[in-house]
Amino acid sequence: MSAATDVVAFLGPAGTFxxxxxxxxxxxxxxxxxxxCRDVLEVLRTVERGEAGRGVVPIENTLExxxxxxxxxxxxxxxxxxxxxxxLPVALVLAAPAGTTLDAVTTVxxxxxxxxxxxxxLSEHVGDAExxxxxxxxxxxxxVADLGAGHAAVVNPLAATRYGLEVLAEGLSDxxxxxxxxxxxxxxxPAPTGWDKTSLVVxxxxxxxxxxxxxxxxxxxxxxxxxxxxSRPTKTELGEYCFFLDVEGHVADERVGDALAxxxxxxxxxxxxxxxxxxxxxxxxxxxxxxxDDAAFRTSAAWLADLRGRIGPSx
Length: 315
Fold this sequence. Notes:
The protein contains 10 helices and 15 strands. It has 315 residues and is α/β, with parallel strands linked by helices.
């Protein structure tokens, strides 16, 4: 059995897209080092208790937007940090027990999102089959495996393999480019790579006209790109919201660090969620621009420090 630090907890059950992400993020990890959890909060608690070194949870989907359970858990339930992300295409297949043919399918099971994402394909190819929602794509695969021939599930390829199903058709998604973003959760803060992102939650000082503009100007003044901004209820009072922000750069970068210090100074509260390498291929021109901007920021700070160093004693 692997040491607890080698264990990767993920949002289960076995066969979910999150397991696929966990296996991709922890290449070479064997089955004994993967632990399926019932929900996002259990993933976090497993890492907090030291029973796993990392956790993997979904945070955003192209079609459905943010995974609010993950956002809320990171903001209100834990001090763990995001230290990596991965974007995976949502590949959907129609799978069934051995011996089932496409024209013999009487029911199709899956999570409602997967059924919705493949609605056109299902209508054209198994239009007479009853569509039955399941708790997850993996659970649908498990149910179909138990029911036997004549029943099918819209699942990811891993779930089909996990539950011994045969793939009847591939490429079920009606919209190409459907992606899900996953994040790894742990206790560490990775070093900057030059291609990073910082996530935080800001609780504004008070709800007033221009309050959000004042917050955004902190980043605009430092030429920092906000790649995401989203409001969520603070869960303390009706009509009161906090703001989830993703900003380019690492907390170790001069401009990002200065911006976070300004937000911490001027707003009611700031919850730092982590600085980590962005997904996707590093864009050299973008990384070089960030490096130039940080160098200019350091030069200006040194100039100001020199001026202040000339201040003499009071008369």
